[in-house]
User: What shape does this take?
Amino acid sequence: MNNKLKIVSGVLTAILGIALILIIKGHRTNPSAPAPKLAYDSLKTIKTEPKKIFGFSADSFIVVTSEIKKNEFLANILLAHQIDYATIDQLAKKSKESFDVRKIAAGKPYTLLLEKDSVQKARYFIYQPDPVNYVVYELYDSLGIYEGQKEVEIIEKSASGVIYSSLYETLQTSEISPYLAVRLADIFAWSIDFYRIQKGDWFKVIYEEKRIDGKPIGIGKVMAVEFNHFGKSFLGFHFLQADKEDYFDETANSLRKAFLKSPLKFSRLSSRYTMRRFHPVQKRWKAHLGTDYAAPSGTPIMSTGDGVVTHSSYTRGNGNYVKIKHNSAYSTQYLHMSKRKVNVGQFVKQGDIIGLVGSTGLATGPHVCYRFWKYGKQVDHLKEDFPSAEPVLDSNKLAFDKMLQEQKAKLDRIQIKEMLASK
Ligand SMILES: [Zn+2]
Assistant: This one.
């Protein structure tokens, strides 16, 4: 597995490792049609109309649905439904120009439409390579083959949850799509470390669910989310700016926060990240996997991003040092402090003072050695390409504020019953 996959699966495990109780409410938001209030209601009423199946009137045929079995070929299926071998052979040849029958795979669903008479000869064979696409094979006359797409219905849903317990219970009670959990982790990647979400954290989310024939097939956009972490609420709102989808907080700032370029307000870069330098104390050539910023003793050192303190201790080499985990990708480390100002487990915001410049450990003079970790490996932060974090443009403010009011009102209406009940 590569690193990214590891992270994704790691995040997934971490999120699944926490029990979430959900209240899921579905309501359709179709901007064009005068939509019924509940998707479930609308699905029930559809049934009273003539039923269509892949564009055909279901009442005109005997409908057989199944899935392709192992070692089953189109020929086996069609021969069993009064299609002769010559026709099947012709169809197979013709299909090479469109959807080749040899691509038909075991485990995929198919539908047969049979004549409504005593012979019950097959008229159409419809194969579904995936939930959205289907291929229709006409089994008469010119043996037409064409592809179609099922209509994807978008339902707006809301969910909320309280993080209260263990992996075991999560797997028993959680109804959340793991994909939704991964999306939340992505949205808040710059402010919340999802490996450390804790008991008592809670969230509310408004998102789109994609459905075909009333069955959920996946998650669309996450429209708005409130995540309460360490007692602080983090808000995220989906907004399209310059044709790019992005998430912004309630003050119209992007959630993608860049790191501070330096942990000191006023500093002098005294030694760069290099694979080879002459160590001033050890008097030998070795890699320098950090960037040194010189400043007078006692100068405040800031955390370059939001995160959780994972280390606050002393070693002979590092002296007093602090390490902060910002998200699943990034951690930063600050060495040679004269004084540490934070404890392990503490949540810090970008710009918070975490310690003071000193020369403890292997250091010749007062400086902070700033180390940057990406997926567990040290990198040169000055060479990293961090995402830009442009706020909502003035020209988009009106549209943004309108969206914000609507989504905030919806979030406010979502109740977190479990949390009240557990108190
Ligand atoms: Zn250094």
